[in-house]
Specification:
- This protein is of the alpha/beta class.
- 39% of the residues lie in helices and 20% in strands.
- Strands 2-1-6-7-8 form a five-stranded parallel beta sheet, with helices on both faces. The protein has a three-stranded antiparallel beta sheet with strand order 3-4-5.
- The protein is globular and about 50 Å long.
């Protein structure tokens, strides 16, 4: 059944995803004769507890890329797009309301999302390591994908960092979204693709809100490991 949880919590999902990513990287190294240099990019906040076990197993850096949905001014739950702190923007293709007033309120909604993203990045970036992305395999991680807007715009942002490849990795996403996701990354890894797909939280037994202090703890812990 589609509402049966696949994962106990984000840590459990991250551990499962870590093993699959490790196996794919290992096989890639065998096939190509070149060992990939992975860097884990988490979408905060919820993606960080997923990403931490992956960075731990791969013994590689853990950092963040912040993307926020752009909310419709009349309905905060309705995403009309997504934006990163580097101001990469992706708008939904759906018809928007109030076409007469389109440009003005879209700009207001965009500015609000950028401000939220930059505020969160300012809180978290001191705990992130310095990374050299050139030629690296950037593994972009979230706790689940519903519409794909935020992970797609985040992928666009990190593609600008001259990596060898960008992977999109998550425990759960809708099956019918996979072809669309594949255009944003060089590889897409999804553990479970249930249909029908309700909300991401349905597929976890425990899915609490992740606060900023918890994210900082994960980032600082992995940063210390990398400095040892």
């Amino acid at each position: 059944m589609s509402n049966t949880p696949f994962f106990a919590d984000r840590t459990h999902a991250g551990e499962e995803l870590a093993r699959v990513i490790h196996d794919v990287l290992t096989q890639q190294a065998i096939d190509s004769g070149v060992k990939p240099m992975p860097i884990i990019y988490a979408l905060p906040r919820g993606g960080v507890p997923i990403a931490a076990p992956i960075a731990s197993l791969l013994n590689c850096p853990l950092t963040i890329v912040v993307a926020k949905k752009i909310s419709h001014p009349d309905n905060p739950e309705l995403a009309i797009g997504a934006v990163t702190t580097s101001e990469h923007i992706l708008w939904t293709q759906q018809k928007l309301l109030h076409p007469k007033d389109n440009s003005r309120w879209r700009q207001l909604a965009l500015n609000e999302a950028i401000n939220q993203a930059k505020f969160l990045e300012a809180q978290l970036s001191p705990a992130c390591p310095q990374v050299n992305t050139e030629g690296a395999t950037l593994i972009l991680v979230d706790d689940g994908i519903a519409t794909g807007m935020t992970i797609a715009v985040a992928a666009t942002a990190i593609k600008a960092l001259s990596p060898a490849a960008v992977w999109l990795c998550t425990p759960v996403a809708p099956q019918n979204l996979l072809p669309w996701l594949s255009q944003w990354g060089d590889r897409v890894i999804v553990l479970e693709t249930p249909e029908p797909f309700m909300s991401v939280s349905n597929f976890y037994t425990e899915f609490p809100q992740v606060d900023t202090l918890e994210v900082l703890m994960y980032l600082q812990q992995q940063k210390r490991v990398g400095e040892m």
